[in-house]
Automatic annotation (TrEMBL):
Cofactor section: Zn(2+)
Coiled coil: none
Name by which UniProt lists this protein: S-(Hydroxymethyl)glutathione dehydrogenase / alcohol dehydrogenase
Keyword Glycosyltransferase: no
Organism, as annotated: Amycolatopsis sacchari
All residue ranges annotated as the Enoyl reductase (ER) domain in the record: 12-367
Length: 370
């Protein structure tokens, strides 16, 4: 069949919406008509050249849609089912999956290849050339073929244009506070950067019972939105936050610090570590440039105060457990997805959407298909 998709041909160029050829699903695969796709900052890291990718690539790793066709052997979904993508697949059988660490599934090691999980070949083509798909998904398209291991079936009464952000940004932010950060009742939590991931981290910390939540962002309207998500204090930058946290906590500082700004910088780590209390956890969940190897850090502060730096991919969540749980939180009002989605765009306006992201105009933009 033919469909349309946003393709990134090389780094430091715009996305180009193309009419592509899409093969039918093979064994274990599913054809999905996409209703909406979240515009995560991760795709912009590819566009800016911060993170390498297999080109040409169909972007998009946050998406939700309707199953149109299934390949042989598919048992978890059927035509007509509503589904949310998981940005990282899980096989359920490897050593990581067997202990519930689905975010570290062995399948993820192949994610940069941009081909199908089942046989590492392509289903998406243009002009005789194979197209890669980001995170085995390629959600910036009107249709895509994915493996059933990347799908979570959801209630058809729920709005897919809201649920699409549950593929990555929301569980990543939420889990970074709750799982990687181990935020608990009475903790003080700082979130550095309150865009899509940070807004979810604020809500995760609130639901975990945090006593005080400090939202740190240079954009004033995002700080104001963070108060609505559950933050108790705000600051425009890390230096200002240090003074605020020191005053409010009587110098004890924060039990958990979550780094969710759009682009990580190793040179900021020493200042960020000062926000953490004794034995405080600093969770690094945002993406840094792939070639960054230098980090500015006071090792004495790390050692003497027993502070901990924790890396987190996909918020350390188990997608099959946590995406349904987050949907229930959305149903009962504990998770505000509506407030996080600030603008919607047709597929043809994808580049405007990413210009808005870079300019700080969105918490999360969403592409609406068709």
């Amino acid at each position: 069949m033919r469909t349309r998709a946003a393709v990134l041909w090389e780094a430091r160029t715009d996305w180009k919406v193309e009419t592509i050829d899409l093969d039918p699903p093979r064994a274990g695969e599913v054809l999905v008509r996409i209703v909406a796709a979240g515009m995560c900052h991760s795709e912009d890291h590819h566009a800016t050249g911060d993170v390498p990718f297999t080109a040409p690539m169909i972007g998009g790793h946050e998406g939700a849609g309707v199953v149109e066709e299934t390949g042989p052997g598919v048992t978890s979904v059927a035509p007509g089912d509503h589904v949310v993508f998981s940005s990282l697949p899980s096989c359920g059988r490897c050593p990581s999956c067997s202990v519930g660490r689905h975010n570290l599934c062995d399948l993820v090691m192949h994610i940069g290849a941009g081909r199908q999980l089942s046989d590492h070949t392509a289903r998406h083509h243009l002009g005789g050339e194979d197209l890669a798909i980001n995170c085995f998904l390629g959600a910036f398209a009107e249709h895509t073929v994915v493996n059933e291991m990347s799908l979570i079936k959801v209630d058809s009464s729920l709005p897919l244009e809201k649920l699409c952000v549950l593929s990555c940004g929301v569980p990543t932010g939420w889990g970074s506070a709750v799982y990687a950060g181990e935020a608990k009742l009475g903790d003080d939590v700082a979130v550095v950067g309150v865009g899509g991931l940070g807004s979810a981290a604020v809500q995760g910390a609130r639901n975990a019972g945090a006593r005080r939540i400090f939202a740190i962002d240079p954009v004033e309207w995002k700080r104001e939105k963070a108060l609505g998500f559950g933050a108790t204090h705000t600051a425009a930058g890390v230096a200002e936050a240090f003074d605020v946290i020191q005053d409010v906590t009587w110098g004890r500082m924060c039990d958990v610090v979550v780094l969710t700004m759009g682009v990580g910088r190793g040179g900021l780590m020493a200042d960020v570590m000062r926000l953490a209390a004794k034995r405080g956890r600093v969770v690094v969940t945002n993406i840094h440039p792939a070639d960054e190897i230098d980090v500015r850090l006071s090792m004495n502060d790390l050692i003497q105060m027993e502070k901990r730096i924790v890396g987190a991919i996909f918020g350390s969540v188990n997608a099959r457990r946590d995406i349904p749980a987050l949907i229930e939180s959305y149903r009962d009002g504990r998770l505000d997805l509506d407030g996080m989605i600030t603008r919607e765009y047709p597929l043809d306006e994808i580049n405007q959407g990413y210009r808005d992201l870079r300019a700080g105009r969105n918490i999360r933009g969403v592409l609406r298909m068709g």
